[in-house]
Amino acid sequence: MSTNKNMAYEFNFDGLVGPTHNYAGLSLGNVASTSNANSIAKPKEAAKQGLQKMKALHDLGLKQGVIAPMERPDVATLRRLGFTGSDAQVIIKAAKQAPKVLAACSSASSMWTANACTMAPSSDTADEKVHFTPANLANKFHRSIEHNTTGRILQAMFKDENHFAHHPALPMGDHFGDEGAANHTRFVDVNSDKGYGKKGLHFFVYGKYAFDDSKPAPHKFPARQTYEASQAVARLHMLDSDNVVFAQQNPHVIDKGVFHNDVISVGNGNVLFAHQKAFLNQMQVYTDLERAFDGEEFHVVEVGNNDVSVEDAVKSYLFNSQLVTLPDGKMAIIAPGECESVPAVKEYLDWLVDQDTPITEVKIFDVKQSMQNGGGPACLRQRIVLNETEVSAMNQNVIMNDDLFATLNAWVEKHYRDTLTEDDLADPSLLNESRLALDELTHILNLGSVYPFQMV
Ligand SMILES: N=C(N)NCCC[C@H](NC(=O)CCC(=O)O)C(=O)O
Fold first, then answer.
1. Residue 3: per-residue pLDDT
2. Strand arrangement of the beta sheet that strand 381-387 belongs to
3. CA 109 to ligand 1 center in whole angstroms
4. Which of 46, 50, 89, 153 has the fewest CB atoms inside 10 Å of its own CB, making it the most exposed?
5. Residue 138 falls within a domain, yes or no?
6. Of all atoms in ligand 1, which is nearest to the CA of residue 24?
7. How many CA atoms lie within 13 A of 243 on its CB side?
8. What range defines the domain where residue 151 resides?
9. What CATH number does the domain containing 26 carry?
């Protein structure tokens, strides 16, 4: 590493798929989730697919980290809902009386760490600290129970108060529905001696206004992120208003299954890669971004509806690719395997890499286990920008390297089931298996006690 303390890097922190990965059809508006309800899940394979992607990005010379999963089934929440007795009894009773509630309390949905939080690098905040706000994920019950543990895990990763500021999640309820970085992108001119550490432009995309019914909103599916929530996060992170752009998602595409902005656009450096139908007032959005961007050139790579329909974008998850700057300065798309099986998308990507845009490479990854619940490569990662001082100050055990990759693979091999169905969630031994695994994981990642079962 260079010795320039201002030099900053983008890390991808991927969510480790938890031992209870299953398909419960919990997310209305997320087409993959509802259409794969009750399929047989493969937790071991899912976790290994995720680890392979992390290792591959590490091997490409990118900075990679890992975020631990939740304790599931969430016995503490089941108790709040009136199930009593020993932990095993709580699960048996919930399975009998309210199997859907048990499924919601057993979801491994924290794997999609794009939704874990929104962060702001120290170069952009008034107090020059790195800020984190866990997403309240208020729109979906199974996700609304993630933020407390997410907050504790982030604090265990970024403990030093001289550098890191942690906020609680926004108030619960639809008005301040916040989905984290799935609806937030930071643009920055990476061609400076600070890399990602130059002051960046924060782009917040919301689905609706919570306090103004006269504004456009989707009709069929929920808008999970509100304008008011995006504004609150920008305030909490002490961002300079000149460095912030807010934009509304196109309500029609939300109704077609684009439940987060990262299903229809992705940004990196000075590039926005977006579908033609991504935003309301799309041209104005581009103008606002071009005007606010502090750098030589801002590129919009827009995919026309005639080339890739919204339906094909949702099916292939083209825009849920990661857009990354490789060490040689070139930009690559890290795309899910499904982009190869949707003909229009494959054709588009083959064409794109020969055009004169900053995107010059496509790398395909198999994350099918996650994809079947509506989570592509970009859902699986939280981007965190850190300078050299902050990298030294953080928990070193969560940074991916060859040893950690081997350790985590062995850990998955030891603790995870090959298959899991909704019926299996009624088995109390799944809870014990999961706790045993997570207890070991907190030692591997040096997290201390972050889970409710470790705090009693
Ligand atoms: N786009 C981003 N950034 N994240 C994708 C999240 C997928 C997740 N799926 C689920 O929670 C499905 C769980 C189930 O049905 O079993 C969700 O809808 O919140």
1. 59
2. 63-67, 8-15, 381-387
3. 6
4. 89
5. yes
6. 16
7. 24
8. 8-72+107-455
9. 3.75.10.20
